[in-house]
Write a structure and sequence with these properties.
The protein is α+β, with helices and mostly antiparallel strands and about 120 residues long. The chain is built from five helices and three strands. The longest helix has 14 residues.
């Protein structure tokens, strides 16, 4: 590959993430852009493989669907809540933004967004 995602920036990635969080409805236009089944299947893939070789650890620690890019971006989907995109080029040994991973880990923990935390807490109530 000579180029990768030359027409995408952090704002566009955040809109993509927010569209998935909103079940396929774009937050800036209000238009439905994807069928619910497409959103579901894509989020399953993002959750299981979106962070390269770190995907398993990410699923356990952050617990949210996400996609990392070799440019240093990460976009994260918090279903029914929001989409986040970060850009910080220094990559870790897995090819993910080191500071992006740290940020997502902290914010997911702070707000209790990890899918497994949400499931666990709903069982405790």
């Amino acid at each position: 590959f000579q180029m990768c995602s030359v027409e995408v920036n952090t704002e566009k990635l955040a809109i993509i993430a927010a569209t998935y969080a909103n079940y396929g409805v774009c937050p800036t236009t209000g238009k439905k852009t994807m069928a619910p089944d497409t959103v579901k299947r894509t989020m399953q893939l993002l959750f299981s493989a979106g962070m390269y070789n770190y995907s398993g650890e990410w699923a356990c620690t952050v617990g949210l669907p996400a996609k990392s890019g070799v440019s240093g971006n990460i976009w994260v989907v918090v279903p029914k809540i929001l989409g986040i995109a970060v850009f910080s080029p220094p990559l870790d040994e897995n090819g993910n933004s080191a500071r992006g991973v740290a940020f997502a880990t902290r914010i997911a923990a702070k707000y209790g967004w990890n899918i497994f935390d949400i499931l666990y807490h709903s069982e405790q109530e």
